[in-house]
Amino acid sequence: MERKRSKTFGQNLKRLRWVLSAISEEEWTQTSVANALGKSLQTISLWEAGNLPTPRNQQKVVDFYSAKLSLPLTREMLHNKGLHSLIELSLSDKAALNREPKVLIQIKQLLSVGDFSKDDLTLLHDLIQRLVGSKKKAK
Asked: Structural domain boundaries of the chain?
């Protein structure tokens, strides 16, 4: 049986993992997400590449990120190209911006996801502007 694929779903999983790393004290890799969900690294890698998990596993992903990010996610949101608003909400946390080197690393990781909407690029620009602004104030 051929698996269903969704590029948007895979990109959103990468973005959620990136956001979680940006706002938490630990680095969330595919391996750490796999361990948290009781799945293999290969499974998480396939999901982030766009292979759709079963509806039951999609719900596990939703429950995991909803709890970790304290946001009311739904399975439908994982298929929505407008997930940039979730990123914006999560990165508005000043604690994340205070860890400048980590945030810059996370920006680089987000850029590696590629295929950005205009809103995603605007968000990245605003985040970089905030980082530059906070650096100027510190001097």
From this structure: 7-138
